[in-house]
Design brief:
By secondary structure, this protein is of the alpha+beta class. The chain has one domain: Phosphatase 2c, domain 1 (4-Layer Sandwich), CATH 3.60.40.10. 40% of the residues lie in helices and 22% in strands. It is built from eleven helices and 13 strands. Strands 2, 3, 4, 5, 6, 9 and 12 form a seven-stranded antiparallel beta sheet that branches. A six-stranded antiparallel beta sheet has the order 1-11-10-7-8-13. Helix 1 (52-70) runs antiparallel to helix 2 (75-93) and helix 9 packs antiparallel against helix 10 (301-326). The protein is globular. The termini are far apart. The chain crosses the membrane at residues 278-297, 303-322. This is Ser/Thr phosphatase. Residues 342-351 have a biased composition (Basic and acidic residues).
Length: 351
């Protein structure tokens, strides 16, 4: 009797109001949706007076999941379209007492052996791989821009009075600006999605220490939330941890590369994703001339056919190698290593 196959993923999800929010309102929301080939996970951090932030965050995640499930096209296209649909849903509800509401949105789509990330705002995605913690996203905020320009240190940004001022969110304009990129996954990878209620209260070095614990995701998220509350819990706290339990093949579509210039308008991203790549034309031309040669020189059709198959296979292999290179985790900032004591690493990242 064959043993049951190991599931590809394991996840834990937790959101908490924190310790300093008045009236106990949690404007964070989280999503974990199991899919046939993986899962869709997301964190939204709402903003706005009264109950507007809570509404914006939940509305965004409801729309995201519904639109993704009903969408067509490749998963990156469906994910970008779902983020745009969530943006419009928030924008259209931002009237009357909800005027001015908005929300950040960070979504992770795991499709077989790949992760695709859609990012708007200052929630963060991290990848723990082989003892190193890679931060996958850059904050869309005023203080983050000052850090990139060298005007603020990471530690100064953490305590700055404008640390919660985001420069990009859902509900601000008709077309959302987002970052969309993918990377291959490996067995043993651990992914973290979190709102700034966690990343703003707990250092990356402390996150590394907690994520390295050999515990299931549902235990790890509780430890992360407890750490944020122990640090004062100044904001709502949300954490999603996803463990990759086994290797899977990469999907057949090209993973979107990381944008070096920050978020782009969704129509520009969709145009790039839907547009025919040069590789498509190369494949069509090779197939055309292979068939033409077999028709015009029938006595050599076996040789011509084999040559065509070899050339087509070579192009596809080259595509896969390129896709893997594009999908590697971004090198910045430098990953935290488990071998470095947390105190030393905290001083290094704060300078």
């Amino acid at each position: 009797m064959r043993a049951p196959a190991t599931p590809p993923l394991s996840s834990g999800i937790l959101t908490d109001v924190g310790r300093q929010r008045r009236l106990g309102v949690n404007q964070d929301a989280a999503l974990a949706l199991e899919l046939p080939q993986g899962g869709l996970y997301a964190v939204a951090d709402g903003m706005g007076g009264h109950a507007a932030g809570e509404l914006a965050a939940n509305l965004a995640l409801d729309t995201l999941s519904q639109h993704y499930l009903s969408g067509r096209g490749t998963p990156p296209v469906r994910l970008a379209e779902a983020v745009q649909a969530a943006n419009l849903a928030v924008l259209r509800h931002a009237v009357g007492e909800y005027a001015g509401m908005g929300t950040t949105l960070l979504a992770l789509l795991v499709d077989r052996g790949a992760a695709i990330i859609a990012h708007v705002g200052d929630s963060r995605a991290y990848l723990l791989r082989e003892g190193e913690l890679h931060r996958l996203t850059d904050d869309h905020s005023w203080v983050a821009e000052q850090v990139r320009l060298g005007n603020l240190s990471e530690e100064e940004a953490r305590h700055h009075q404008w640390r919660s001022v985001v420069s990009n969110a859902l509900g601000g304009e008709e077309r959302v600006r987002l970052e969309l990129f993918g990377l291959p996954l490996r067995a043993g990878d651990r992914l973290l999605l979190c709102s700034d209620g966690l990343s703003g209260a707990v250092t990356d070095a402390a996150l590394l220490e907690l994520l390295l614990r050999p515990q299931p995701p549902e235990v790890v998220v509780r430890s992360l939330v407890n750490a944020a509350n122990d640090a004062g819990g100044p904001d709502n706290i949300t954490a999603i941890v996803v463990d990759v339990l086994r290797d899977q093949r990469l999907p057949h579509y090209a993973l979107p590369p990381r944008q070096v210039d920050g978020p782009l308008y969704v129509d520009m991203l969709l145009s790039a994703q839907r547009g025919s790549s040069p590789l498509t034309y190369v494949l069509l031309i090779l197939a055309y001339f292979t068939l033409l040669g077999m028709i015009l020189v029938p006595e050599q059709r076996t040789v011509i056919g084999l040559l065509g198959v070899v050339l087509l296979g070579g192009v596809l292999v080259a595509q896969r190698v390129t896709r893997a290179r594009l999908g590697r985790p971004p090198p910045r900032p430098a990953p935290l290593r488990a071998a470095v004591p947390p105190e030393r690493e905290a001083r290094k990242t704060s300078g």
